């Protein structure tokens, strides 16, 4: 190397899953059969109509050109209709919707748009590691705020209000919550809006798992009174429509927030593939039965994930949403990192310790449901057999 790496990389570690998946690959290369229940990468396909739309659009020789930075009008309109029909949230598709190449990219754009170096960003603990990584790489100070497991993983308001919050510009929130599966609740959003209004902090609500909950629990912070004044929301089609590899999402909110995010986006990307936009437009118009079938599939898978965690000595909340199952080890002094490593080595199943998501995840395990039922059944059997073996009891 003729130049050293940038100093901003000194404050972030390599993504946990990038490191762990190398270990899994090494084990597989040595002949081990490993079932990966670590990452939330949907294995289910998008709707057939969505695939057909992509194929038809890609066959058009003029659809390979650069596209508008803010996406085609048909896509923005479909996103606005989706927000209204699914969440009861009325948005102007011209000024209050910004298509993005996935919500993870949006996390960077939001931070660059509103946070200066030295400002402080509130991130949930436990929570998605990218919130912390993006903040640190942009020169912000990260302030983790604890979630309350006794209050279904809502923010611990007493702890939050006792913190030194001077200089906080942005607060990340995420319900249904990853990794705990805590569902969204109207009262929780109202508390967040009240806090942000009093403290003059912008909330970015990351909402990729909304479709993977009971149909009556679909909520957006933007639909709550006062939400549009203090919040912007990121939506993703990765989980809700099984389009993770196509990288399609959007930011929604008041134009005063969307315009700065769009200005960042216009400097670092050149517009989304037109064929992907056409496919996403069709996906957003999916029949309610398609969403019902998706939820039903995850419900069956969730029961298997609960069984696995129960066999490992975990307690599991019953009302979890999303594509993971989260459980707390009940044995005194149990180390989730040790248990996860033992499950990988002795059962050949990769699950994730909660510490990956912050100090608040100590003592918890997470299982991904992104495998077919037969694979999850096999994983459950392997774990049950491993836990009952003399080797497990001896270790």
Q: Any overview of this molecule?
A:
- The structure is a single chain.
- The protein is of the alpha/beta class.
- It folds into two domains: 7-45 and 289-394, Aspartate Aminotransferase, domain 1; 48-283, 3-Layer(aba) Sandwich (Aspartate Aminotransferase, domain 2), CATH 3.40.640.10.
- Helix content is 43%, strand content 15%.
- It has helices spanning 16-29, 48-58, 73-87, 103-114, 129-137, 157-162, 186-199, 227-230, 237-240, 255-268, 274-283, 288-311, 336-347, 373-387, 390-394; strands at residues 35-36, 97-100, 120-125, 141-148, 154-155, 168-173, 202-206, 231-236, 249-252, 314-316, 324-329, 349-350, 352-353, 364-368.
- The chain has an eight-stranded mixed sheet, with helices on both faces. Strands 10-11-14-13 form a four-stranded antiparallel sheet, with helices on one face. It has a two-stranded parallel sheet with strand order 1-12.
- The radius of gyration is 21 Å and the shape is globular.
- The protein starts with 15 loop residues before the first helix and ends with a helix.
- The model has no long low-confidence stretch (mean pLDDT 94).
**Range of helix content:** 40-55%
Alpha-carbon distance between the two ends: 44 Å
One letter per element, helices H and strands E, the order comes to HEHHEHEHEEHEHEHEHEHHHEEHEEEHH
Q: Strands of the biggest beta sheet: in what spatial order?
A: 2-9-8-7-6-3-4-5
Structural class: alpha/beta
CATH architecture of the largest domain: 3-Layer(aba) Sandwich
Supply the CATH superfamily name of the largest domain. Type I PLP-dependent aspartate aminotransferase-like (Major domain)
Arithmetic mean pLDDT = 94
CATH class of the largest domain: Alpha Beta
Q: Shape from CA axes?
A: globular
Q: Biggest sheet, open or closed, and with what strands and sense?
A: 8 strands, mixed
> Which percent band covers the strand fraction?
15-25%
Uncertain runs with pLDDT below 50, 5 residues or more?
none
